[in-house]
Write a structure and sequence with these properties.
This protein is α/β, with parallel strands linked by helices and 334 residues long. 34% of the residues lie in helices and 15% in strands. Strands 8-7-6-9-10-11-12 form a seven-stranded parallel sheet. A five-stranded parallel sheet has the order 2-1-3-4-5. Helix 8 links the parallel strand 9 and strand 10. Helix 4 packs across helix 6. The protein is elongated and about 75 Å long. The chain starts with 5 loop residues before the first strand and ends in an 8-residue tail after the last helix. The structure holds nicotinamide-adenine-dinucleotide.
Amino acid sequence: MIKMMKIMMFGVRDDERAAAKEWAEKNNVEVTFSTDILTLDTVEQLKGYDGVTTQQSIKFDEGVYERLNELGIKQIAQRSAGFDMYNLEQARKSNIIISNVPSYSPNSIAEYAVTSALQLVRKTHLIDQKVKEQDFRWQKPIMSREVKSLEVAIIGTGRIGQITARIFKAFGCKVVGYDLYPNEQAKEYLEYKDSVEDAVKHADIVSIHMPATDDNYHLFNEDLFGAFKQDAVFVNTARGSIVDTKALLRALDSGKLFGAALDTYENESIYFPKDCRDKEITDPMMIELMERDDVILTPHIAFYTDIAVQNLVEGGLDAALSVIKTGTCETRVN
Ligand code: NAD
């Protein structure tokens, strides 16, 4: 009898189980769930397994790689695009292939970026408040701008940036963009500018879609916000570290920015995506972002749709199975 392959899914959330069960049936693989994260202690659960997928968000205990090797496991399949929590070199030395899921639903993030920009521009969050107060008057503070007449700047025109640009274009907006490496296809729906400053100068909405690198740490600082058009709306569904939050708050206080939608925040890892209902929030900047009417703060949730979760689960399990069967996988990063 042929032995059934066994893959352990670490850090599993309830919403991932259905997609994993379906995948297991389709691929004739036994998939076991563990809500634990993968550490030197929990790695022992993998005795007798062929592969592992996980969803690590904190730095990895480096002893895990060698222990996996000893247990005969050849890979770790991360169920996210980011893989900065792994020491790729250390993993390679222990013959462990690390893989990610590079693109699981760029539409989900793009749609969310547009949604939160529209909320701010059309002031739906303020209108909601008025309705709750039973104040149903049409009045200046809740009169909004027409989206079609606005200019939008997309900074970072890769997978997500391009979809965001296309959606805004469909509204009839003028769309400009900036990228270190302009994309030929993107020129169909946006006009490239030569610098970030040029791109933001006349934009009513600025939406950022680039990865966090050493070079763009706090790229959006006091000087750059100073170059924005008066009353612009700023949207960050990319990475918190790209934005100097103090400078952003000053730009909101001075009235330079009309509002900001932040799905990511530079010090988010203490809080996102955790249940903090019984916890005191001690970060004063985070408290301010949560309390302000001109900021929509959300817990790194732009990706979180049915399709994205399914693609992440399947992407992780596919990568694990591919390494088990062929010794490698298309999404390996080391
Ligand atoms: P991508 O690699 O397809 O595109 C990124 C683009 O940014 C590339 O074209 C690159 O040339 C450009 N770029 C890099 N550095 C730049 C800089 N300093 N200035 C201008 N352009 C620069 O990536 P993607 O799949 O479109 O993802 C974009 C970002 O979205 C990711 O890096 C990630 O940070 C973020 N993201 C967020 C969520 C969420 O839930 N909020 C989920 C997934 C991804």
